[in-house]
Amino acid sequence: MMGESMALPFWLDALIALLLLSGALVALLGSIGLARMPDVYMRLHGPTKASTLGVGATLLGSMIWFGVGHEGLSAQEILITVFLFATAPVSAHMMARAALHRRVACREGTHGEPWDEMDRLPGYAESSPSSDNQR
Amino acid sequence: MTATVLPIALALFSLSLLLNLYRLLRGPDIVDRILGLDTLNVNAIAVIVLGGIYMDSSLIFEAALLIALMGFVSTVAMTKYLVRGDVIE
Amino acid sequence: MTLMPQLTHWWPRPHFSLFLLVLWLLLVNSISPGQVLIGAVLGWLIPFSTQQFWPERPHLHNPGRLLLYMLRLLVDILRSNLSVARLILRDPDTLTPAFVRYPLSLTNEFAITMLASSISLTPGTVSAGLSPDRAYLLVHVLHLDDEDELIEQIRERYETPLREILE
Questions:
Q1: How far, in Å, are B81, C51, C76 from residue C97 at the CA level?
Q2: Per-domain boundaries in chain B
Q3: Contact A24 B13 (CB under 8 A)
Q4: Domains of chain C by start residue, with CATH
Q5: Is Chaperone given among the entry's keywords (chain C) (predicted)?
Q6: Per-residue confidence of chain B (89 residues) as pLDDT tens digits?
Q7: Nearest to B43 among A27, A62, A80 (CB)
């Protein structure tokens, strides 16, 4: 295990180590946000971005590691990274919509009003009467 | 240097997985649980990739790709079910 | 040019076909002739057999500038992740979350999708809904300082370039 990694030039080795470590830290921050934020909408922020970026950095690190000398550049990591970055906002959007639809309460002191049942309301102007009971 | 950093990164990701599990088990609303599961998926990909480096094999990445695909599809299916009451219209 | 409608019927979206071919080659992780052939067939078959499901095709004016846009988005993601990291580690009671209605000026579906994804990927904001008349995007902000400034920032940084590229 890891036998050949000694052959790497120092700066490349350091770069990979930096990518792996910072990726893990950023992903951990996202998960901390998920665990300690008070309402669903605020919890969405941590995982969708920080975790995606953290895993992206980890994948980049492994791409370099496999790219120099080991099994050759593996294309699947590129695919996973692109896929993660393309899908994370979509699933975040879907989860926010589901939370709004279920009228999950947001924290006291949230500015502005969400609209609910946006499938039925035509938009901004008429959204206020029914969205008051949401909080 | 990579060899020394690898276990640390794995430990950090395991901590992330535990935090996600906490949200998955506790999560007041069902949306919280979905969010926890989705994040668990994303972090699991990273663990698989780190495992791939550790074992010096890129074969395992097919599994990571599959988890990424299945995680996204299941998240969308579950939220769609919550919003529409139906997955395929 | 009388041949054109025929051609677009039998080969609806050349760019998409090329994209699918590249995707297939990345997926199987090889560029042997057999795989290129399978990828090419799939790249033709999938757009052809699903063309009824695509009501409007996106017009990509300038692929180079789209790449530039993505690069800038990546820089933004990195930079604002640092600020959101600070917010997460702060006491949650001191944060002022908010829902903001962002008035859209884009009309193309694909462009709106791109804008919503950009908003969700830059930390501090998540797009949470689109009004049925497509006039507003509901954005949840983790820590709001100034609503007008935020709207102005989104318009300037993301919406204007996207409109130039895609509409």
A1: 27, 42, 21
A2: 2-30+38-84
A3: yes
A4: 4-53 (no CATH), 63-166 (3.30.70)
A5: no
A6: 778 889 999 999 999 999 999 999 987 888 899 999 999 999 999 999 898 888 887 788 888 888 999 999 999 999 888 887 766 66
A7: A27
